[in-house]
Amino acid sequence: MPDAKPGTVYLKDYRPPAYLINRTELHFELYEDCAIVSSRLHLLRDGSVAQNASLQLHGQELELLSVAVDDCELSAAEYAISADSLLIYAVPEQCVVACRTRIRPQANTSLSGLYKSRSLFCTQCEAEGFRKITYYLDRPDVMSVFTVTVEAQREHYPVLLSNGNLSEVRELAAGRHRAVWHDPFPKPAYLFALVAGDLSHTQDSFTTASGRQVTLRIYVEERDLDKCQHAMRSLQQAMRWDEQVYGREYDLDIFNIVAVDDFNMGAMENKSLNIFNTSCVLCSPEITTDSGYQRVQAIVAHEYFHNWSGNRVTCRDWFQLSLKEGFTVFRDAQFSAAMGSPTVKRVEDATLLRTAQFAEDAGPLAHSVRPESFMEINNFYTLTVYEKGAEVVRMMHTLLGAEQFRRGSDLYFERHDGQAVTCEDFVRAMEDASGVDLHPFRNWYAQAGTPHLTVRDEYDAVRQCYTLHVQQSCPATPGQLEKLPFVIPLAMGLLGAAGNLPLRQTGTAGDVETSDNTHTVLIIDQPGQTFVFEGVTERPVPSLLRGFSAPVRLHYDYSKSDLCALMRRDADGFVRWDSAQVLAIRVIEEVERQLFTGAVPLVDPLFIAACDDLLRNESLDPAMVAEMLRLPSEEYLAELASQASGANVDTIHKARNIVRTALGSALVESLLARYHSLDSVLAYAPDAEQIARRSLRNTCLSYLVSAGPHNLELASRQYELAGNMTDRLAALKEIAFYGAGGLRDSTLNSFYQDWRHEALVVNQWFQVQAEIPDSQGLSRVQALLAHADFELRNPNKVRALVGGFTNQNPVNFHRVDGTGYRFLGDIVVALNGLNPQIASRLLTPLTKWRNYTGRAELMRAELERLATEPALSPDVFEVVTKSLQ
Ligand SMILES: [Zn+2]
């Protein structure tokens, strides 16, 4: 246990800052062993808040060289320093506080604050990294205009960047130089950024709707200059889209992106100086898969969109994190849908939510979209805050309609420009602009847990009347035993023999009107409700939760033939896909039961026939066919099982493989025909049509390989001939998973030899091996920890090798001897001191210990061992202790 248990911070304790910082002047002198930071903070006391004349500034791991108030240096008696603050006993109402501190970026392995990534100085300040740079009011509701001077040796650091516009460059003595940056927009410290290094850049431009010329630059190492084109194009697309869809223009003359190797997150939206993980910028057909291309496009857009939803209007406190993240994830999802296939994007988002966010909501770390308390804010960059937060915004979009939603967002930006505000302010703007009462809807922000919707129906053939009974409930979560009803938009239709039926609902007041009379949105806002449809000429199959209209668990007792009908004929792409998923789950669960009772496993021929239909139907979007044929992941199956009696990872793995093999064997002919017909001689392009074809073709390959080792030849041929990383990696994965030892080793080895000079590809190579489900899984990963290209200090490598193993290789992670858990525990201990954020994040799979039949005690024991480790970081301490409660 740590000596002092980290304190808990509560939303209810929020107080406005007693001092504001109108202007911030920073001066950085960068050296090879340290950096000297001089600050001048122009402070003003908020007379309405406090009469206390003392000033407490945040600061961590800083060496204070001097402190002055209004240019009078303070004596040691006039201030006090603690591990996380500087307290000045008396300051006037208005003054300039100047500090000089020494920091050591070279020794900063936490990648928070100012640190060195290889030869580059860079920063990451969200959430509370700025306090590791200088003493400051490091809270988002203190917004200040920054002027930043950066000085360094010209030879090694020719590029010196910070936020805003460049206002001065100057050569200095002894080979040093200086750049001065001024950002006219007030911002909180978490949006501060600095970069110094030997970087090259690509440049392009963008003309905003009102005619402003913006210079766009992407800074990378010289060898990566040819890999920036896609990110640049994505940035331009995002800038145009935000003008068209949200009426938001860019507001400075320059926008910079810098790619950094060592980075805890994907990217960071610092004002006009976005810092990106290299994995979220660099793209080329040779090194990047299709999903990598899509990820770059989405993340570039996400960070750009923050310029308004996050930077111009920011969060009052960190409990409001979803204010900027939920809204911006929703915006980037809309953007990705517009750039590619909206249904496939929705399927991907729903899959992530149901697999991982629902698990978070059902686990010991469940928290609401706007949490009430935390020990370490870095632990709250969660799927709940981001993805569920985006679903909450999406539901408001559904309830208000696109036009009213846009009026709401216009009002929000207009009303709060330059302010630090709350989720409540966002909802109120939506309400005020639309006139829609969202009062009960606010429960989505305050209550944790995933609501369940249980639906029953009746059909009266004589009266041609169809009735839906909908009940909602929500399980208890830590600290919240009773829940109020949620407002749940339930998009639906009714499917008849020849297609969707027209809907005539009695008493429709309050429901969202839709233009198509075969589709409606029911508003569920009571524990139980009944909806009656008239003039229904046949018993329909209900098509429910269309487009995944709410983040809920839906229960309706579909028969297999209902599911097949929805799969084939429903108008809603999401419901078609979801029906295929539910059918696959049903079939896999049947096999699990057969395995349990010792019966000979039998895969329902109905399911195989439905898959064959999909494969043969060339009128469907191949991307959707691929999604519909993809079996639910073992992780999702385990999540579902944990809702019932508990997950048995071995049985799930075995049953899923039996179903895969049965499908592959039964459909060899259709699979081969489709595999060959999707072959393409076109030059690689990451466009929706090509991505769809590759996706289905590689799905076919995977099933063919599962049908028998003779089909590995196909994989080998594809591997040899592949002209892009998507096809090469797909083939490599099949060979690595199912090839005999010799073939596997030689292919993995040749892949490494071909790509060892590309760190991002080597990460993919680590990840493929981490996921191999054979009995050597753990020892293979342990051996790779010692590989010359593996570094524990680099988060991308840790995520690829360790995260790949713990998240994507369940049979090996959950080894019955507990060695998989011990492996993870040891890594967490090693990382705890180096990089607490990454250490804490890696722990997620262990926090689900209650879900696993026959493993819970072992998993718990590993958490208990971690709890006894000395000097646990607050990050790890919080996750471990809350998981054990
Ligand atoms: Zn974000």
Lay out the secondary structure.
Elements: E1 9-10, E2 19-30, E3 35-45, E4 55-58, E5 63-69, E6 72-73, E7 79-82, E8 85-88, E9 94-103, E10 113-117, E11 120-124, E12 144-153, E13 159-162, E14 165-171, E15 176-187, E16 194-197, E17 200-207, E18 213-220, H1 229-246, E19 254-260, E20 267-268, E21 273-277, H2 290-305, E22 314-315, H3 321-339, H4 342-362, E23 373-374, H5 383-400, H6 402-416, E24 420-421, H7 423-434, H8 443-446, E25 452-460, E26 465-473, E27 488-496, E28 499-500, E29 520-524, E30 528-534, E31 541-544, E32 553-555, H9 560-569, H10 573-597, H11 605-616, H12 622-629, H13 634-643, H14 649-666, H15 668-677, H16 688-707, H17 712-721, H18 725-738, H19 741-755, H20 759-770, H21 777-784, H22 795-808, H23 810-813, H24 819-834, H25 836-842, H26 844-847, H27 856-867, H28 874-884
Parallel strand pairs: 2-12, 18-19, 19-21, 22-24, 25-32
Antiparallel strand pairs: 1-23, 2-3, 3-9, 4-8, 5-6, 5-9, 7-8, 10-11, 11-16, 12-15, 13-16, 14-15, 17-18, 20-21, 25-26, 26-30, 27-28, 27-29, 27-31
Give a written overview of the molecule.
Helix content is 41%, strand content 21%. With 885 residues, it is of the alpha+beta class. The strands form eight sheets. Strands 6-5-9-3-2-12-15-14 form an eight-stranded mixed beta sheet, with no helix packed on it. Strands 17-18-19-21-20 form a five-stranded mixed beta sheet, with helices on one face. A four-stranded antiparallel beta sheet has the order 10-11-16-13, with no helix packed on it. The two termini are 15 Å apart. The structure holds zinc ion. Zinc ion binds next to helix 3.
